[in-house]
Structure of D-aminoacyl-tRNA deacylase:
Amino acid sequence: MRTVVQQVREASVSIGGELHSSIGTGLLVLAGISRDDTADDLAWMSRKIPNLRIFEDEKGKMNRSLKDIGGALLVVSQFTLYADASRGNRPGFSESAPPELARVLFDRFVESIRHEAGCPVETGVFGADMQVSLVNDGPVTIILESPKKP
């Protein structure tokens, strides 16, 4: 599993010109599911993200987590995180999970991170054409990948 985690002052998802979901201070998580991901990958990522110490403390050091600041999460599925553009100019997506599997795993990930984070969790709509807006804070952007399997 691969995610792009962005610290935001606000973020939202619109679909067809209509606001679908939004958060204030917190994290926007773009989540990609690979064809090899398992429940272990989802659990690892669900524990990692809410505990990342990427928010500044009173001394200006990145020392506080989403849980510490009482922030929110906006989680958006994004299969293009597994794009491979190493050959040619048109990316391939063979590492991405097929849509049927990705939908199931994405839904499980959202439920797991809701449980782990203990904060408001909003989402986009799996497979929809979404417009994602954000005000990146910092900017702080972290790319996470679940540990490789032996």
Remarks:
- Helices lie at 39-51, 66-69, 99-117.
- The chain is about 25% helix and 40% strand.
- Residues 50 and 66 are 5 Å apart (CA to CA).
- The mean pLDDT is 95.
